Amino acid sequence: MRHITTHTSPATGLRGIGDTSWQPHGVCHGMDPEDADATFFPLPRDHEAIADAKELCGPCPVRRDCLNYALENDLKEGIWGGLTEAERRPWHDGLPRRLDYRRVAAFFNGRDVHLTDAERQVVIDHAYVRGWRPDRLAPALQISTKHARDLLRQAANRVFDRDRTLGVPRRKNPVKKTTVARRPRPATAPPSTQQPLARPATPTPAHAPVGKAA
Ligand code: SF4
Fold this sequence. Notes:
Blueprint: H1 33-40, H2 47-57, H3 63-72, H4 85-94, H5 101-108, H6 117-129, H7 134-141, H8 145-166
Helix pairs in contact: 5-6, 6-8, 7-8
The protein binds iron/sulfur cluster.
């Protein structure tokens, strides 16, 4: 079952989808909306206003959440997390390639977190290696079962190619135990009817010395 965090959940280091619980902890929380607009959406060359906004953001305890919120929701204008839109541009551009294993681990722990393209790919590959079936991956990624099946098939090919490139030996199928048919034992006669085997008579040598003959 997925755990969906909401705006009423306590703030954590890893924000879930739709989680706005960090906002009341921001230094700017409670500001008049017009003042907030004027402060955090200055003109690009209004250095004095930008410096004032950065001064507010500096000690803010939720700067990281604020920045992630802007990145994950593609908010490219204004100051978020203490960074101007120009300073955030490389972060926006590189976001699909961000690979934060804390998010991957959080996903497998049932958290409903934002995943970048790179993190989602790792999740799919791990799901394949863990033996997840399409009907398990589909609700976790909120996609159709058919889509999940296609993704797992692609992951299987990727893992196979990677193992072949790295020379990882393929797992052998466990050797099946073959059951050897037991040969039927010859029927033995009951003791009462068994006849003792006749020993072949040993001829006594004609020249055996007297007294030593058996
Ligand atoms: S980092 Fe700045 S914009 Fe973001 S919540 Fe804090 S004070 Fe507000």
